[in-house]
Amino acid sequence: MSQLWLVPLSFALSTILWPRAEVRQVPFSPRPVATLIQEARAATPPHWPAARLRPDLVEVTTLDPTLRLDIRYASKDNFLGAPVYSQAKAFLQRPVAEALVRVNRALRPLGFTLRIHDAYRPWWVTKVFWEATAPANHDYVADPAKGSVHNRGCAVDLDLVRLGDRLGDDAPAAMPSDYDEMSPRAHADYAGAPEEARRNRDLLISSMAAEGFKVLKEEWWHFDHATSRDYPIMNLPFEAIVRRPPELAEAGQILLVTTPDWDSPKGTLQRFELRKGVFAPVGTALPVWIGGKGMAWRSDEGAPPQPAPGPVKREGDGRSPAGILTFGGMWGYAPKAPDGVRLPYTTATKCDRCVDDPDDPDYARLVHLASPDAPRTWRSAEYLRMDTDHYRYMVVIHYNDISPLKNAGSCIFFHVSPPPGGGTAGCTALPADDLLTVLRWMDPALHPVLVQVPEPILDSARAAWSLPAEVRP
């Protein structure tokens, strides 16, 4: 970063009330920053009460490309001397971003545009700042046990750029201090700056206030939006903030499966159908069983970004894939599909298998033998016609079966749970009557999708995948 101003500690403690919201201190860092980052990324945030609004992070420059960016934490130009963001982008909750766009539009006729230095900040970054700062100076940083407004996607650090008459003439507007400067000049009411700098600062503060932003009194560049307490503390990596995955974008039916945590084998299934642009719930929540060891993030080709840390799906781990999944055709023991089922149907025989040997060329694929005793190359495969009722009604869940990756997992189905119900080897299962109800509702023309996540991860998944707000347990 540009010049970092320091003050004697005695003066700081006796004279200046430093902000608790954000770190503005020289790093303590008894260990390498890279180590702190690695540990913070693997850490689990504390549990916070449920927020009133569900997150909807948006990249602000997609709403207004005239907004300027100078994201210091994506470079070495910051107090750590190392990048912590993987991308020089700025994300905010949609209503906050929309308010910021209105500020920018109001400023442009006055000859200015906004320049953003920081916006949404994952929780793990707050933890890095805390660990990199001497304990004696922890009053100057956000406590990761409490989180910060940046973690909610409702805080933004910015200044002004003065627009020139010709292309290339734009220049940062004079301000009382540099961004991130630790001195009295950074205070929002500092009176000792040149008149032009004070005028620019006050214009920024008044323009932001008109759209519901409040300046942090020790930092003229830091603004919290009035909605900040309505949103949760988030730990979503930048890489996971993407447009709605195509499978979800075209879906007219969503099957949402949630469990209490990563390791629980039992959860609930709720159906939703798109009606007049809104996903309306269908029927009541149904009990559902997944892998006996719980869930794990998809690891196959085409998996959506992982919005939070968690186990990763592997062959034989006894976990069901978490993420967004689509369906294939239906299989069963009867000569034809049950009445009312519209899915493509195939009658299973003793010649039909699903190969779960990672070393076999047909790994994760359905194969049909010439006879039940025909030679085979694999060491292990599942029968699609069993002596139990597990696959009496069964639908293929497309997981690692299009372009199989070795050891990513195989043979994931939507099938009957054995009475009285229990964990599966990695599939999703319902009692027979409930499963038939769901299968009769599923319409291939509406491109049904399965969304499976532990409930504590749902808000992060919603933000990462743009999951509709109304899709919830």
Features:
2 domains, disordered N terminus, 9 helices, Muramoyl-pentapeptide Carboxypeptidase, domain 2, 473 residues, alpha+beta
Q: Could you please describe the fold and organization of this structure?
A:
- This protein is α+β, with helices and mostly antiparallel strands and 473 residues long.
- Helix content is 17%, strand content 24%.
- The two termini are 45 Å apart.
- The chain is elongated, with a radius of gyration of 27 Å.
- It has two domains: 9-230, Muramoyl-pentapeptide Carboxypeptidase, domain 2 (2-Layer Sandwich), CATH 3.30.1380.10; 242-465, no CATH class.
- It has helices spanning 9-15, 33-42, 60-63, 94-107, 123-131, 195-209, 246-249, 432-441, 458-465, and strands at 57-59, 68-69, 91-93, 112-118, 155-162, 171-172, 213-216, 219-225, 253-259, 266-275, 278-289, 295-297, 320-332, 345-347, 352-355, 366-368, 381-383, 393-398, 413-416, 428-430, 449-454.
- Helix 2 (33-42) crosses helix 5 (123-131).
- It contains nine helices and 21 strands.
Précis, in short:
This protein is of the alpha+beta class and 473 residues long.
Low-confidence stretches: 1-25
Number of helices: 9
Radius of gyration: 27 Å
What value does the average pLDDT take?
89
Number of domains: 2
Topology overview:
Blueprint: H1 9-15, H2 33-42, E1 57-59, H3 60-63, E2 68-69, E3 91-93, H4 94-107, E4 112-118, H5 123-131, E5 155-162, E6 171-172, H6 195-209, E7 213-216, E8 219-225, H7 246-249, E9 253-259, E10 266-275, E11 278-289, E12 295-297, E13 320-332, E14 345-347, E15 352-355, E16 366-368, E17 381-383, E18 393-398, E19 413-416, E20 428-430, H8 432-441, E21 449-454, H9 458-465
Parallel strand pairs: 2-4, 9-21, 12-13, 13-14, 19-20
Antiparallel strand pairs: 1-3, 4-5, 5-6, 5-8, 7-8, 9-10, 10-11, 13-18, 13-21, 15-16, 15-17, 18-19
